[in-house]
Amino acid sequence: MSTMPVLALHGGAGTIRRDLMTAERKAAYHAGLRAALEAGHAILRDGGTALDAVTATVMALEDDPLFNAGRGAVYTSDGTHEMDAAIMSGTDRACGAVAGICGPRHPVLAARAVMETTGHVLLTGEGARRFCREAGLEHADPSWFATPERRASLEAEMARRASGIPDDGDDARRHGTVGAVALDIHGHLAAATSTGGMTAKKPGRVGDSPIFGAGTWADDRTCAISATGHGEIFIRHAVAHEIDARMRLAGQSLATAAHDVVAEIAPFGGSGGLVAIDAKGNVALPFNCSGMYRAWTGPDGRIHTAIYSDED
Amino acid sequence: MSTMPVLALHGGAGTIRRDLMTAERKAAYHAGLRAALEAGHAILRDGGTALDAVTATVMALEDDPLFNAGRGAVYTSDGTHEMDAAIMSGTDRACGAVAGICGPRHPVLAARAVMETTGHVLLTGEGARRFCREAGLEHADPSWFATPERRASLEAEMARRASGIPDDGDDARRHGTVGAVALDIHGHLAAATSTGGMTAKKPGRVGDSPIFGAGTWADDRTCAISATGHGEIFIRHAVAHEIDARMRLAGQSLATAAHDVVAEIAPFGGSGGLVAIDAKGNVALPFNCSGMYRAWTGPDGRIHTAIYSDED
Which of A127, A203, A207 sits opposite B127 (nearest CB)? Predict the structure, then answer.
């Protein structure tokens, strides 16, 4: 079997305020999204696996300080970084994830090492950090992950909490995430997600990214999904597995299942979105807020990038 | 609405070897299962909530050193305890979980505190331990959790690994868990799960217990589920949410969905089982191994306890 390869990625979703978005900043986002998509798409074009493509795409997003994963990760309320990442293969639903780590330059490689070298699925905290050191992953200094923008966000959020000023509703600052889904020419799907979590989160808090069935899922029978948004609500609705289940058990299309689920969680405070690809290469990029940083390959193989809902 | 209350619990599943089960030990298990069920059932009979009933039942199992949760939890490869617990309300799918804690006498109360006092769903490791201290939960000395039987299991497992002797197949020693599901007279469902994990697990390893949709789920529209078994496989198959989805999307009965899913994961190495109750009070207790420590109330309100498959 030889399938047209397809790749989609997100760099977070939320109320992305247009008044804070300069032309220069917007151009930088589009360039970062395109570069990350190209990193993965080059692998797919050369006959590489979906698993390698989502890994490469997420690595690129982790290295880009514009996005909340790896370099540019947000800070906890303690002023530290705690990163989560997950990866899943649609071939056999093999999967691996880490939560609460700070050390590996590319948290997605830590997730992949869990999948490929342990009998476990999820490693957290100090045990995960020790595993990463022993696995020989490239580590980076804390200064690599630190950015003045995220530090300012933490300080603003802590000041807001201290003074009791209501939230300004810029969700994207609170819960960005990056992720990718791919279909390779062999017909296999994969998904990967990586995040620094929420600005000023309680240390130890884990969102939906490393929770399979919530923020990440891949199954060759149905689809690959990577979500971004208010993680707790995504967990309570098992968002990724719910889409898989509606396709498999109710015969729904990817578009219907993905759009419906993302719409249904909005009234529960589940702001966010997701990127999804089905086994036939259809792409769905639903979100229920004003924007989602995203990029995807169209049926013509061309790369598209977008931020707001009026840009598709 | 006033519904006949129903409660079911498990204390772990696996290849429970009859040759190691003395009459005295068997009687102690049955007594422990019955006492835990009575603790929760008394709450339901008095008009209490399913949430309070599963909490009380799991607390009793956590206090009983026969079961792998709280007192009697297994050891990690470091010789420490790392406990996970989760609780979920079927009313609104509110949920809370902790992973990798050692401190609170009753990990299920830590999970409940996450659900009721934070905006988060899952707290892990040092952050979770700090939260437990600040939440004012009753803490116990490490010696409270320690039992000579679990220490001997760790030593046997480490010796087995060092010498390369094949595993003897007694899964119950490796991955016990406790859990409960309940339907209260108000028609609400709840589920709770608590575990010490796997003997000699890698520090930081998290199984399916605190992963909503895998080891724990509750939704008044369908069912409440608490699972026990090879957690990694349960995560890869989203076992609890899959049963919910088959009932909701494919119109299956609880019995059909629960038995099918438990049977389907067996070939993937997913040994284990689960306890489940649907919104009408039907109980399903499927397992794909030789035994599951379990107790439940029948349609007559009487308490039943069982270990092997030939005891229902």
Answer: A203
